[in-house]
Design brief:
Layout (H helix, E strand, L loop, with lengths): L1 E4 L5 H14 L5 E4 L6 H5 L8 E6 L8 E6 L5 H13 L3 E6 L6 H18 L3 H11 L5 H8 L15 H7 L12 E3 L5 E3 L1 H14 L8 H21 L6 H11 L9 H8 L1 H15 L7 H8 L8
Parallel strand pairs: 1-2, 2-3, 4-5
Antiparallel strand pairs: 3-4, 6-7
Helix pairs in contact: 4-9, 5-9, 9-11, 9-12
Length: about 300
């Protein structure tokens, strides 16, 4: 009745599997993909039953994490969506219906935080400074501790590595994260992390090589640079109809990414901070650092009308 494909993120392999599943599965069987960001419309196009193709994006580790992003493609039928939502409930997951776009809702917003965390390191903040600020905000861990836990070599290919990023250099030194006893941090036998002088030197060398001018970065800037672009991206997702309501985005972030429950979620938190403050900061960052910070038209509209996300 239902097949879930969970091979790694290569479109050619996924298309091959869906072509074969389409040929052998009974009519009416649902064909689901666990992709975390590939175009499901493209996957559905290789089948003769695009109405039966849907994304069921489980979060790692799938037996523990509550979130299930249910991704409706252009041709997914309402019956298939309803069955998927019912299935999620049956297996104890928290389901959120989202649309097809790169990274869907969760990873698309995460991408904003990851980009700023990497940039802040090149501007003078150390990985442990950034992790500490986000941990103090309420996340179970910061982006660099998370990378060490997952493994720095995910998606990294030794033969192709040219030391183009800090991560590349660390992987080339065989600092691949907790599993090798060292990544961004150094680890003892019990996997306790401590800031690494080796990583600090790698970062300083990299900054010299790229000609950047490091400066003192405050905790307040770290928090605003990591969190406000997430709120702005959420506004874009709502505008594009890739999430139905602001609370859906909050549910994704609480159940899939460890957003602290007592801070509601990125959209709720935006309302608490005040959207005029978020907009003003995004405009300030855009003027200083470019269009990656361009405010969402929805954010501008809500501020102009004196409204919040909760009014949507």
């Amino acid at each position: 009745d239902l097949v879930i494909e969970a091979v790694f993120e290569r479109m050619d392999i996924k298309k091959d599997i869906f072509t074969r599943l389409d040929a052998i599965c009974k009519p009416g069987a649902i064909l689901a993909t666990n992709t975390s960001g590939l175009d499901i419309d493209e996957i559905a196009a290789v089948t003769k039953r695009p109405e039966s193709v849907i994304g069921l994006h489980f979060f790692s580790p799938a037996n523990v994490m509550k979130l299930l992003e249910i991704v409706r493609a252009d041709h997914t039928s309402k019956e298939v969506i309803a069955t998927s939502m019912k299935l999620a409930k049956k297996i104890g997951k928290v389901a959120v219906l989202v649309g097809v776009c790169p990274g869907f809702v969760g990873n698309r917003i995460l991408g904003q935080r990851q980009r700023e965390a990497q940039k802040l390191v090149m501007e003078g903040a150390m990985p442990w400074d950034i992790d500490r600020v986000l941990y103090d905000f309420g996340f179970p861990m910061g982006p660099f501790a998370m990378s060490d836990l997952a493994g720095l070599d995910i998606g990294w290919v030794k033969e192709r590595s040219k030391g183009e990023s800090i991560r590349d250099v660390l992987c080339e030194m065989d600092r691949r994260g907790q599993k090798t006893g060292a990544g961004y941090y150094d680890y003892d036998e019990a996997r306790n992390a401590k800031p690494s002088p080796v990583t600090e030197q790698v970062i300083k060398d990299f900054i010299v090589k790229t000609g950047a001018n490091p400066r003192e970065v405050t905790d307040e800037e770290i928090l605003e640079r990591c969190i406000y672009p997430m709120i702005n991206e959420g506004a874009k997702i709502l505008e594009e109809g890739k999430a139905i309501r602001p609370s859906d985005i909050d549910v994704v972030w609480q159940n899939g990414y460890g957003w602290p429950v007592y801070r509601g979620g990125p959209m709720w938190y935006g309302d608490q901070v005040g959207l005029p403050k978020v907009l003003a900061k995004m405009q300030e960052f855009q003027a200083k650092m470019g269009d990656q910070f361009k405010p969402s038209p929805l954010l501008e509209k809500l501020v102009a009308e004196g409204k919040s996300f909760k009014d949507l």
